[in-house]
Amino acid sequence: MRPVSPALFLTALALAVTPAAGADVEVRVQDPQGGAIVGAHIEIRESIRSGRPLSAVSDVRGAARLRFDPPAEIRVTAPGFEPLHVRQESVRAGELNLQLQPATLRTTVEVVVRDTPTAETVSTSVGSALEIDRSGARTVLDAVEKLVPSAFVTRRGVMGYGIATNGTGMVSIRGVGESPNTGVLVVIDGRPDYQGLMGHPLPDFYSLSDAETVSVTQGPASVLYGTNALGGAIEIKPSRPREGIHTQLTSSFGSYFTGLHRLAHGARWERGYYSLTAGVAHTSGDRANSAFHDQDGTLAVGYDLSPTWRTSLEGRYGHFNVEDPGTVQHPTAGQYARVGRGGFSYDLENATGRTWGYARVFSSFGHHMLWDGFRSVDSTTGIRIHQTVTLAPQLTLDGGTDVVRYGGRANNIAAPVDFGEHHLSDSAGFTRTVWMPVSRVRFNAGFRYQHNSLFGGIAVPELGASVRLTERYSFSASAGRGFRNPTIRELYLFPAPNPALRPENLWNYQATFQARPRSGITTWVTGYYADLSDLIVVTGRFPSLRTSNAGRALNRGVEANVRWQAARRLSLTSGYGYLRSTNLGPYIPVHKLNYSLEWDAGRAFVHLGGMTVGRRSADIQRTSQLGGYTLLTLKCTVPVRRNLSGFVLVDNLSDRRYEVLPGYPMPGINAMAGLDWRF
Asked: I need a labelling partner for 373 at 20 to 30 A (CA). Which of 34, 145, 170, 460 fits?
């Protein structure tokens, strides 16, 4: 017996709690070619005063059955498509067909973590979704690298990125990222996440224990998020429970005593929910002195105060210990990093027929201990308000403000050196608008003004337009600015602090052509030109080092993607990124190719994925190079019982010998096996 689809279960549950009044209506959500959009979120409000809106998720046919009486306000959202907001005056024969248009202007790629259809899943006709669980990704950044051809992540072993001098997990998007990574922003549930003193994210905390979806914005995202979104943003949306009580336990073991264990439990009832997640990851490492251990957990609760207002509170904490074995030429022992980080956010959300938004208070903190005596404590505290208003069916306006204070203190107990305590603050206002004068043309614009307590004010604009040439072909173009403020480390700590540094700047111009030449095939090509100026660089030799805004680069490139639904149970996806830069940093490839084949064999699901990376510079001076490599990953998932499945994952299937960082050979072929239990 086949398991019941969670989407059908959710729809049935919605019907069970819906009052008897009204008529059954089958709502079908389709793309412009008539293809079903799976996992579209449908919200229906019969009137502003009618109480809690009805909601459902489209099933594998793109359909959901709801009981309501027109006239009604209907809002449909699905990643990869423009939101649809209409007022339906009548319904014929109990059926309602709604068509969504592709979001041709957005450069956001959605990554679906679970195969359960939810509001975040994407129809297979949109070549922008990849299910992380099935692909074999072990961390959020692993998934990003597997999906986005213009993204590259450094690493040094089977698991554990680490921090400090030899730390990895540095993300570059279209050649922008820097070392440490302060040019690509990580956003968790709408709030920027970075170390208050160093300004960079902590990649070892971005596990898949509490990540429902991950999206990657290629190109500057500073209008929405401000500093550090210079080259793009990686947004992680936490999971929230569906109706009823749900528990999922996943556990796996493999080579080098590597283990991944995750627990997710939650419940949702008529007016509230709670969610609890926990995860443990560990490995002994493929080399001596390369062990890693991490644990993390989250707790979230939410409650509907009224049909319009709801509130939620979320807390999280994690801790990891990672060892650095050194290069094979100069191996080391006893070099470790121990990091603990936590935080909370409180949200007050609102949603009516024509406006929705939130007010959020958030705070995060962390403590770092390194083997060389370095100690630090940092914190980030802020408030963010964001509201969207539909002024007319063709015109949407949103705006907001955020205020953030960040910083901390640091010292080195071995030197000894006291770096002191430092704090900075940012305040900003932003607005964006989307106007569709006719159904085939769309304009968007945005503006942000941000004021920093040290650097003063900066204005950040963006502008774009798109046109659907036909039902199958579209074209879009955009221009925008990104920026990054100097971090406290660069201003006051090391290696050569300079309080007179200025923000880095980027102007990005890009154009995209998207085509659906036939049913089941989606392809798009993007060309971009990015002008980076005032880049912060360190020059000279120790002890005569100097930090200044002396860097500049012109990055030009092409991205090409295609997704082909070759058969009902077989799909192929491929993406290629080419980058040409006047000042390309080390470890960043000029060529990168991603590809995957997914086959639903009925009693098994097989994913074969690959990544080909071109040659890269091995140092800042470009005096040596690292060779290119091809990696293959195979994952096979087999249902054992209705709520129990087993899986086998094989990494580096071809047993390729390669290095991402010089002196750190990566593991050869390695495997994991585990079970996934849902109840």
From this structure: 170
Domain at 6-99, CATH class? mainly beta
In the beta sheet, which residues pair with residue 109?
216
Cβ 639 vs Cβ 645: under 8 Å: yes
Mapped onto helix, strand or coil, the DSSP state of residue 180 is: coil
Q: H-helix or E-strand containing 376?
A: strand 374-392
How many Å apart are CA 576 and CA 593, to the nearest integer? Answer: 4
**What is the b/e burial string over 17-55, where b = at least 16 CB atoms within 10 angstroms of the residue's CB?**
eeeeebeebebbbbbbeebbbbbbbbbbbbeeeeeebbb
> What percentage of the chain carries pLDDT values higher than 90?
61
Phi, psi of 174 (to 5 degrees): 55, 35
Which pLDDT belongs to residue 293? 96
Which pLDDT band, with edges at 50, 70 and 90, does 226 fall under?
A: very high
E-only strand ranges, 504-643: 504-515, 521-541, 544-567, 570-581, 591-600, 605-613, 616-617, 625-626, 629-641
pLDDT at 22 over 80: no
Q: What's the pLDDT at 214?
A: 84
Element (H, E) at 365: strand 355-370
Q: What average pLDDT score do residues 317-337 get? A: 94
φ and ψ at 13, to 5 degrees? -65, -40
Q: Are 58 and 7 in contact (CB under 8 A)?
A: yes
Q: How far is CA 280 from CA 246, 260, 292, in A?
A: 20, 6, 11
Bridge partner list, 366: 341, 378
How many alpha carbons lie under 13 Å from residue 74 in its C-beta half-sphere? 27
**Structure tokens belonging to residue 279:** 């995860």
Looking at residue 167, the DSSP 8-state letter turns out to be: -
10, 11, 15, 17 alpha-carbon torsion, rounded to 10°: 20
Tell me which fold the domain 140-147+203-678 belongs to: Maltoporin; Chain A (2.40.170)
Distance CA 444, CA 21 (A): 41
- Pinpoint the residues of the chain covered by CATH 2.40.170.20: 140-147+203-678
* Closest to 195 (Cα-Cα) out of 316, 340, 360: 340
The DSSP element (H or E) to which 226 belongs, if any, is none
Looking at the chain, the domain(s) classified CATH 2.60.130.10 span 6-99
β-bridge partners, 194? none
Are the C-beta atoms of residues 394 and 436 closer than 8 Å to each other? yes
